[in-house]
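Q: For a teaching session next week I want to show students how multiple molecules come together into a single three-dimensional assembly. I've collected the sequence lines for a complex. Could you give me the predicted structure tokens for the whole thing so I can convert them for display?
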Amino acid sequence: MARITLDHIRHAYGANPVADSDYALREVHHEWNDGGAYALLGPSGCGKTTLLNIISGLLQPSHGRILFDGNDVTEVSTQGRNIAQVFQFPVIYDTMTVYDNLAFPLRNRKVPEAEVDKRVRDMLGIIDLADWADRKARGLTADQKQKISLGRGLVRNDVNAILFDEPLTVIDPHMKWVLRSQLKRIHKQFGFTMVYVTHDQTEALTFADKVVVMYEGEIVQIGTPAELFEKPSHTFVGYFIGSPGMNVLPAQLNERSVVVGSQRMDLNVPPQTKPGDRIELGIRPEFIHLGREGMPVKISRIEDIGRRRIVRAEFEGKPLAIVADENTEIPAEARVSFDPAGINIYANSWRVGGEA
Amino acid sequence: MEKTYNNKAWFFVLPVLLLVLFSAAIPLMTVVNYSVQDTFGNNEFFWAGTGWFTEILNSDRFWAALQRNLLFSVIILALEIPLGIFIALNMPKKGLGVPVCLVLMALPLLIPWNVVGTIWQVFGRVDIGLLGRTLAILGIDYNYVRDPIDAWVTVIVMDVWHWTSLVVLLCYAGLVSIPDAYYQAAKIDGASRWSVFRFIQLPKMKRVLLIAVLLRFMDSFMIYTEPFVVTGGGPGNSTTFLSIDLVKMAVGQFDLGPAAAMSIIYFLIILLMSWIFYTVMTSSDKDA
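A: Of course. Below is the structure for the complete assembly, covering every listed component.
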């Protein structure tokens, strides 16, 4: 178990990176606390897997250092780092039995056979494959194979960290839920540092204490699920977290107020911006009130999603999503007001301030 | 659409049936025909029953050739399979090296068999051959025309040179189909180089290895051209393998009956051995 520090890590797959766009990881400078459960969230191709492989030592970063508890391990091999990693697609040794698959990482580390047996039996119980122990791992279902992959990572309970690279992609929804809660339980029990890569926000938000959002090779925000929701520090986070995502409207700042089209809203604290910055106003659909008072909108479509309704409207020529209760009456001449607590101001896509 | 039920579809398979008939079935039956008859020429045939088969199975000459051939097959399999796996494991997986290696590997396979024989026949000659002359200068007594051991070494090295590439290419195809995640997982699990080979690479190569072993066994058991060109089966009978012996009997001595009987025995041996190889190597699949 260890605190993991990423010291100005940059990585490019090509030989001679020049521009920022040549880097799969532009620059990551971050510390993972010992025993934390982190989710690494971001769209495909944003550098999540690259970052994970750098932590586990499968990849050498082009620049920067990695420290475990303050010791530089940048040059240390994967094996020397004592890290467990579970991959997106199941990897099993199909000439071995299920039991031997789970015992493999322990036996490679010369763990005494009695201890191996105890831990493997425990793990077989956790992943619910006890009845399959003596079967060849070949010919199992994708679920079972991935459970073996998970088990091979979890069976080593002395690891510095466990990294999960979208491990539940191939698992069907019901099983996903079961496995996720088991992972959480195991995390509480053993307390190792866990990093969980996913592009599924529900998975990230339910699993982790802290969510790290990546976008185009950079970490754009680290925070609790609530922080990500209420104060997205980048318009991408606003768009990516939440369903539907945050409304982002082009705006102008004018002294203590923000102007969108012909509408003006007052701000308590004026944000710090430079002239020439591209200013945007972000507001989540949940913070918009629909009624007879406020600014005029033109409603184009209403989607009923059960207990709530999503109203698609046009506001100052821009599309606007509004979340309304199923009981809310939607007038023909609809007007909206923005909850001041939900207003975020962005300069060049980064959050510079807001009402609250 | 209404389905048509009649037997006209048979016409589609007729050409291939005819082809197989003329290229395999009819010649084979001719051989069977010869094997049970005796002739003194003039197209006169007399019934000989199983006489020729008994004669062949009781002849020392046949058993000696069979032994030589089995020994040859065992040696070249023992050399070519491990060597082929070893080379395949060390071939580059990406970059400019891949096409270069593949072309180099494919070259020996593209050379006609009698040309391979000729190359080695000249290569090993003590008076003008690069190999033979060099060894002579180094003071090594090497002469494949006189010494049976030297003749064997030459024929075996020639076969290894000619056919190891086939094993390499087959194994390489098996290796490149292994996803990177397997190697990464093995690193995470702390697997040794040997474990990676034993539990990841070898299982993935198993199917292609089966094909490689079968092909190399059948080919080496039927080998004719190359040793015939290099040694002509000599010195003495030391490199006279089954097919060389067979041709000597059929063409050289015109003993059609015994030659036909031997052909059939030969054919059955290859069939039996291939079946045994196949059964043994696929048996472990069934317990899954």
